[in-house]
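question for whoever is on the cluster today: can someone run the full assembly for these? two chains, 1322 residues total. i dont have access anymore since they changed the login thing
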Amino acid sequence: MLPAAGEPAAGDSWGMLACLCTVLWHLPAVPALNRTGDPGPGPSIQKTYDLTRYLEHQLRSLAGTYLNYLGPPFNEPDFNPPRLGAETLPRATVNLDVWRSLNDKLRLTQNYEAYSHLLCYLRGLNRQAATAELRRSLAHFCTSLQGLLGSIAGVMAALGYPLPQPLPGTEPTWAPGPAHSDFLQKMDDFWLLKELQTWLWRSAKDFNRLKKKMQTPAAAVTLHLEAHGF
Amino acid sequence: MMDIFLCLKQPSRMVDSKRMRMTSNFQWILLTFLLLYLMNQVSSQKKRTPHDLKCVTNNLQVWDCSWRAPSGAGRGAAYEVCIENGSHSCYRLEKNTKIPALSPGDHEVTINFGSSISKFTLNEKDVSFIPDTPEILNLSADFSTSTLHLKWNDKGSVFPRHSNVIWEIKILRKKNMEIVKIMTHNTTLNGKDTVHHWSWTSDMPLECATHYVGIRCHIDDPKFSGHKEWSNWSLLKNISWSSDSQTKVFPQDKVILVGSDITVCCVTQEKVVLALIGSTNCPLIHLDGENVAIKIHNISASESSGTNVVFSVEDNMFGTVIFAGYPPDIPQKLNCETYDLKEIVCTWNPGRPTSLVGPRNTSYTLFESFSGKCVRYKRAEVPTNESYQLFFQMLSNQEIYNFTLNARNPLGQSESTLLVNVTEKVHPHTPTSVKVKDINSTAVTLSWHLPGNFAKIKLLCQIEINKTNSVHELRNITMKGVENSSYLIAVDKLNPYTIYTFRIRCSTKPFWKWSKWSNEKQYLTTEAIPSKGPDTWREWSSDGKNLIIYWKPLSINEANGKILSYNVSCSSDEETQSLSEILDPQHKAEIQLDKNDYIISVVAKNSVGSSPPSKIASMEIPNDDLKIEQAVGMGNGILLTWNYDPNMTCDYVIKWCNSSRSEPCLMDWKKVPSNSTETVIESDQFRPGVRYNFFLYGCRNQGYQLLRSIIGYVEELAPTVAPNFTVEDTSADSILVRWEDIPVEELRGFLRGYLFYFEKGERDTSKMRGLESGRSDIKVKNITDISQKTLRIVDLQGKTSYHLVLRAYTDGGMGPEKSMFVVTKENSVGLIIAILIPVAVAVIVGVVTSILCYRKREWIKETFYPDIPNPENCKALQFQKSVCEGSSALKTLEMNRCTPNNVEVLETRSMVPKTEDTEIISAVAERPEDSSDVEPENHVVVSYCPPVIEEEIANPGADEAGGASQVIYIDIQSMYQPQAKPEEEPENDPVGGAGYKPQMHLPVTSTVEDLAAEDDLDKTAGYRPQANVNTWNLVSPDSPRSTDSSSEIVSFGSPCSINSRQFLIPPKDEESPKSSGGGWSFTNFFQNKPND
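^ ran it for u. tokens below:
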């Protein structure tokens, strides 16, 4: 599923990488996707959480490479451009009270929608990239992100939530046109990576919260499923 | 005028310089007024007539002349102007007049105004030519390229002649109209109105600031001789960018050449605080409003994503990306060839990288001019160091192609061309599907597949034939190309039953390039009958009854297959006897034969058939005059020569074997043609230092005769052992040595002699080192007669040890040495003399002594054994009177250091019994006595040492404290009275004066006694027995106190310890008590010696 070897990550711990790759490898067999003999959403939430951590780690190396490709000042540590054209990107930052008040379904739906959008943008990024190495890294990350999306879908399915349907026309498209200058494009790329990172942080928190919640009696889930059945 | 002159002259007469200067100034003012007056007079004269005629022209056809009207002439006054221009023509005009251009030369112009007539001379030279002010028809801007396009009309129709026009165009920028550039533009007037276009590319994007353009002209008519002047500047036209109040940076995504300069500006309403190129800060150039620009000089090549330029305003940031790169290099090494005559592949090298990637990457177009077809190459990513390639489908019936490769990127384009005849540029694909089939054992067919349609051309293929352990062979084959790509060829001249490896490559004719080698195909050719019979030899067994037949296995080339078996048969005139088949690994057969003349034949068989038989005669012709010769080889072989013998009709055979092997011995043999007289025998089995026997047989009448027997070495080595030798006989001056032969295996060469060394030397001391170093004391004998087995060495010394060494040598070197030590026999006469002489001398000395003693016996007795000893001679009783009288401190006789051998304590409270031998303690060093106190002569030690008595000694502590120890004088025997204690003793030794103490008690008693001594110093001065003083007083008759009273002068002898039966002396110094316990002994004696 993942070409684990050859990951161009600087200073990463191979042990951790190998471990996480194993997690990814087993991703297709996420129990959450398999409703029969379901051991509950607990393990799949855990795996999704692990995956977000792994993606965080993977993104760190990808962002380093990509920002270097964008050139200075984008690769400078204190570079913080205004969020100009990146308004279409799903925002990860949310008021803490709002975040706390989210229910599981909403939480998962937001995650799912965000990553669907981000993945689409990321694929556009891949098409734009000028060097082969960068394209490989991006393609690798896209695959991983696709895995995360599948994992979230699995968790949602395990909890009995429907997957959000993409509204026709709202599907983000990547259209590098004359209206979009290279500089604005770079700003968008920068923000895409930044949002992606923030989303991964948020997801880690989301799934951690969800995980803790699920550790409390599984009866709640059963009840919920019954309720859903009605 | 005279007045002025006078006035001018007058000041010169002035003497006073100061006054003169004032006067001069005044005169100047006066002069000026005068001049003004005169001029006014003249002008007023002029003003009354038309004056100042001036003519200008703007089209060279009409002159516009004007003059100044006379004073008083009102508006609308009419003038009559007459011009003498060949004909006389007059015009009635008002003030200005337009007259047709006059021909060159002076013309008289008369202007009549009323009664006044003015005459002027008018020449073309005086006329100014000022073109009309040009008018800008249109000024437009291409913002994307920062180019201004200017359009104007030259109005050339008004000019009669063709003439050159210089247009001067000025560009101004910003609202304060800074002149950016003034440029000229040359055109020609052609009699028609022409609209001219002129473009200018700004270094700064046009959006950054308002740009203004003005134009004027200067017409250079060659025929016009008057003043040609610039026209006036046209009205300025401007170009400005209509900002939509949104901040923008210009230019956007610009691609520029590396090394060029570029200005980037930010059109904004906000204040720009910072501009960055990449991460480098840039100084700002302020334009109108808040607009700013930065200038980048000599830009370097961009990274793949371009160079970022960022403008920061307070809370925002704007930017652009600039791509600095190079225009495409000329495509290098353009090469077009075909693999299969179906498709042309053109490859090239892009040359210098452009630093532009992605959409700005170089695009290539391959254009073929004959057919007009083109192929495009567009790849987003440029692989480094990889040549590009494009495929062009070949057209039927076209062989010659003219290719133009065009490279293009935003910075420019370049191209490279190539004209090819593709049939001459065929680089075939690698042949595939190589197959081999048998024809026979020496020929095969080789087939392969070569993709492509080569029907029209010839192919040149190369077949590499590799035989194991052999050089590879290349065969070139020319064949006609076929359409179906399958090729077949026969390969002959192969060896049967041989593994061949074939591979093929092809090219075309004319040659262009070889294809790659095909994969190797291995093939084993089929077997054929063996080409010849095996090389055969025979040996009679040692008993002479059996004939052993040997043969060598056939080489691979001769066997032509796998040899399965051999057939051996022997035939005589009468019968033919055939042995059963002998299977391959065995190469020997034994036949029982009577001594008849047989012919043995051996045939080798493989799966295909039998070899021709090889025959050998069994008969051995005897040779009588055979002698054994020696030969030495050249390291790897040995050369044998013999004389030509016409009787030898068939061949010579040399067989050899290791000489140490038993008969019949055969290692190998070699057959040599009968006409040769020498051969070199070489074999891998030969080893240096091994003796081989070589036998040369000659073949005659189908029988072999041993011609020569040779022993030899391929290389001689030094012997490995030394000859064993023994000493047969030894005399006083000679030794007879005998040695044994060295075995042949250890000799390792032909023995050339022995070296015998001998020298004087003992077994332990003399090591025969460096025998070859030519030591003079070593005698060497070289024995070259190898039959000699003994050696007598003469002229030796009697009863001397000789070191003998023997070693053998061959041409290969010296063998090891064997040595022996031999002592020659004694010379008996010398021995007798050596005994007799000392005996005789001793006897004579004895006799003489006896006689002398007898003669002087009286004197001897007097001297050595007097009957009555003379007391004066007794040194012990000698007193030095003078000294004794002067100082009573001196002793004449000292008897001390008598340590009791044993001290016996009869009663003890201690449970610890102790017995000590005092002699051990007496050995303790004594401090030497002061030599000034005692004369050495007086220091005679007389002591009494009682017999050893076993004693028990009390615990010293208890002894002293309790004072209960019983001390008994067992046996005091003295020939002297105890003497008084010396007077100086208390002074000298207040502490040590504690008196005698047995040394075995010292460590404890001394401390205790010290305390006692403090109290009772006077009483106990001198000798003090360690026992209770009272007890001592009571018991001892020799108490120091009593003697003290009786004799004060001399201390005579020493009292004995109460614990011992020995004389004691008072300690002379503060010697530790143990020193006082010295008994007479050897050690004491020696210690006293220094005092003597």
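summary bc i know u wont read the tokens: Confidence is low (pLDDT under 50) at residues 1-12, 28-37, 174-178, 218-230 of chain A. Chain A has seven helices and no strands.
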